[in-house]
Amino acid sequence: MKTENAVIITNKTRLESLIERFNTKAQAKFYIEHSGGNFSDYEQEHFVFKNSLSAVVEKLSVHFKCKVIDRSYLPNYIFTEKDLPVVLGQDGLVANTAKYVNGLPIFAINPDNSRYDGILLPHSINNFEDQITRIVHDRFVCDDITMAKATLNDGQTLLAFNDFFIGPASHISARYNIKIGDENENQSSSGIIVSTGAGSTGWLSSVCNQVSKMSDSETEIEMDWDDDQLFFVVREPFESKHSSANIVSGYIDDAHPLIVESFMPQKGVIFSDGIEKDFLNFNSGAIVKIGLADSKAHIIV
Q1: Rounded CA gap, 172 and 188, in Å?
Q2: What is the pLDDT of residues 264-291, one digit of tens each?
Q3: What pLDDT digit, counting tens, does each position of 54-79 carry?
Q4: What is the pLDDT of residue 277?
């Protein structure tokens, strides 16, 4: 179906968030400078981003109807096959967007190459215009990226581009039964991380670093972004009369999903990609199945 709309997804700049917090730019400046910070850096970042946004809207408007939405509206925005999701922001915004666009190809643009790494942002503000013609004529190429899916026994679902966290919403122990394949046991821990290939260099890598330093041996999980598998690790499992610590890590695929049953009376949660506000309750009686998402994310390259 022919693309008609460019939906540009952005996030508030740090300056906009400060003004929202302190009501005026002058008050925000007073706070930053009296704390020893460099307020001009916030202003420069904001200036560059707004210029990039203007350039993107101007070039896309030649071919599509344009709409700019803030990231906070993503969970409730309904994308159609006529939409082109355009991410203008940091890498995390691409990950967050991918969960809500129903497999649509994502046009990801780095608004500030001097400030952002752009691992998930193949295009820069200097070269994105060349790609627009390919998109208009449907001649673009995508990288396919595996995502994870959490399905609760009440039917609720949540997707993850990088990783899931399953555990307590506060600093308490998570209690649950964990099952993969023919193995299962009751556990008490600080939670479970499930990572995709794209997320394996993030939160999961920090756990590997900790294990490597403590055991003085190299621990590294290598997964390509399009691999049809996930990897889970249990954080700080505690052994007691009522909990074991034998199932602490492993791979997840279609034949071997991870099944977790909550024994937490309250404050159990599942959230993805570090977005704690967008979560599923995971309290006593809840059972979650973690596996591969039905479709992959597609990033235009």
Answers
A1: 10
A2: 999 999 999 888 878 899 999 999 999 9
A3: 999 999 999 999 999 999 999 899 99
A4: 79
Predicted local distance difference test score (pLDDT) of residue 110: 96
Per-residue pLDDT at 25 exceeds 80: yes
Query: Any long-range contacts for 122-129 (C-beta under 8 Å, 24+ apart)?
Result: 122/299, 122/300, 122/301, 123/300, 125/52, 125/55, 125/56, 128/56, 128/59, 129/59
Contact status, residue 89 vs residue 9, Cβ threshold 8 Å: yes
- pLDDT, position 68: 97
Strands 65-70 and 5-10: parallel
Nearest Cα neighbor of 257 from 295, 287, 222, 220 is 287
Residue 52's nearest CA partner among 104, 121, 128, 149 is: 128
3-state secondary structure of 33: helix
Pairing mode, if any, of strands 65-70 and 174-180?
Answer: unpaired
In DSSP terms, which residues pair with 143 in a beta bridge?
299
Q: What is the arrangement of strands in the sheet containing 157-160, beginning at the earlier edge strand?
A: 157-160, 148-152, 287-292, 258-262, 174-180, 183-189
Angle, CA 285 vertex, CA 283 and CA 291 arms, to 5°: 80
Whether residue 59 contacts residue 29, with contact meaning beta carbons closer than 8 Å, is answered with: no
Task: Report which of 58, 161, 151, 64 is spatially closest to residue 103, judged by C-alpha positions.
Answer: 161
What is the residue-wise DSSP string for 238-264? --BTTB--S--EEEEBTTB-EEEEE--
Contact between residue 49 and residue 112 where contact means Cβ atoms under 8 Å apart: yes
Residue 33 in tokens? 């400078």
- Going from the C-alpha of 171 to that of each of 22, 168, 210, 234, the distances in angstroms are 30, 7, 20, 16
What are the distances in angstroms from CA 260 to CA 155, 235, 294? 15, 14, 20
Number of Cβ within a 10 Å radius of residue 201: 17
